[in-house]
């Protein structure tokens, strides 16, 4: 059994693999086994892996299972103490793995951790998809140390200390295999988007801890296989975020939060249409809310089990303020300017 298994889920990402997999091999192979799980790519990914990277273990799927279920199926075939889920568009750095492994080894209460994510295009800037660790506000909107909505900070070392977070980015997520499976893994029904937040929130509800360890840092291209403005990405983000809230919010918060989110989601839809003329995203938000209503009660048993596993009424990393109010009304666009609770 491996101590650490780095698992890269790939779908038509031959160009990214050719560009960034060499750094993973150069800086990781002495400490981890490296796997590429291929979601039925139609480009030359598999041929590239065979020709240039024969030392990688390859798991082949006959269909595209998406991010969440793709990882579940891949990790189900791998025995390791720690899994490290890694995007194909990550450039790792020398000595990046050691701080993560050492921290997890001496902190058994920690289920998962992430390195600091910086932009590969501007290496002095945080990267959107995780920055230096993620949080939620009281209405379920995610934000990060180093990134709130579209405001991404320059990295001046202001968050260079290990700290507990609510969620670690799925772009570079180290997690104990036992915790992964004890918690049920990623929710494959999500397909993609919000699945790592959902997983980490479930772990925190169970009393397990999540950390960001900025001593380790990597560079991320970002954007993934869907561009930021893609209506499918908008649909998945809204549908999955609502589903996550339904599963994870405590009973005393659920109804009030869902009422407020209904208003705010429709407000976001009309703002997208009126201010940006974006018909695709406008329709995607309506479709997402309709899809959530249709499948909401498919998650009733999930909700019951998650709430039964709750070890505390509140989680410190889910902040009590509204990030919308702080950002738009108060003008607090940097994490360091936010209230601490």
């Amino acid at each position: 059994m491996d101590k650490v298994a780095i698992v890269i889920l790939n779908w038509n990402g031959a160009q990214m693999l050719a560009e960034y997999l060499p750094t993973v091999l150069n800086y990781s192979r002495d400490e981890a086994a490296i796997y590429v799980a291929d979601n039925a790519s139609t480009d030359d990914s598999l041929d590239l892996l065979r020709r240039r990277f024969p030392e990688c273990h390859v798991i082949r799927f006959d269909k595209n299972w998406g991010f969440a279920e793709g990882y579940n199926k891949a990790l189900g075939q791998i025995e390791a103490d720690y899994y490290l889920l890694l995007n194909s568009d990550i450039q790792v750095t020398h000595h990046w793995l050691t701080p993560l492994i050492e921290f997890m080894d001496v902190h058994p209460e920690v289920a998962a951790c992430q390195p600091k994510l910086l932009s590969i295009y501007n290496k002095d800037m945080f990267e959107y998809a995780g920055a230096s660790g993620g949080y939620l506000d009281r209405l379920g909107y995610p934000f990060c140390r180093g990134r709130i909505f579209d405001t991404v900070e320059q990295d001046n070392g202001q968050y260079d200390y290990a700290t507990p977070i609510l969620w670690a980015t799925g772009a570079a997520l180290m997690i104990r295999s036992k915790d992964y499976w004890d918690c049920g893994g990623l929710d494959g029904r999500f397909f993609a988007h919000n699945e790592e937040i959902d997983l980490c929130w479930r772990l925190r509800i169970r009393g397990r801890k999540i950390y960001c360890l900025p001593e380790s840092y990597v560079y991320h291209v970002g954007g993934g296989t869907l561009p930021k403005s893609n209506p499918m990405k908008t649909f998945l983000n809204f549908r999955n975020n609502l589903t996550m809230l339904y599963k994870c919010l405590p009973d005393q918060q659920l109804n009030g939060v869902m009422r407020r989110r209904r208003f705010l989601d429709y407000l976001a839809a009309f703002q997208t249409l009126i201010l940006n003329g974006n018909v695709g995203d406008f329709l995607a938000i309506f479709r997402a809310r309709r899809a959530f209503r249709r499948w909401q009660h498919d998650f009733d048993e999930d909700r019951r089990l998650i709430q039964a596993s709750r070890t505390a009424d509140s989680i410190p990393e889910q902040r009590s303020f509204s990030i919308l109010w702080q950002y738009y009304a108060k003008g607090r666009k940097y994490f360091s300017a936010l209230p601490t609770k």
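The longest strand covers residues 209-220. The mean pLDDT is 96.
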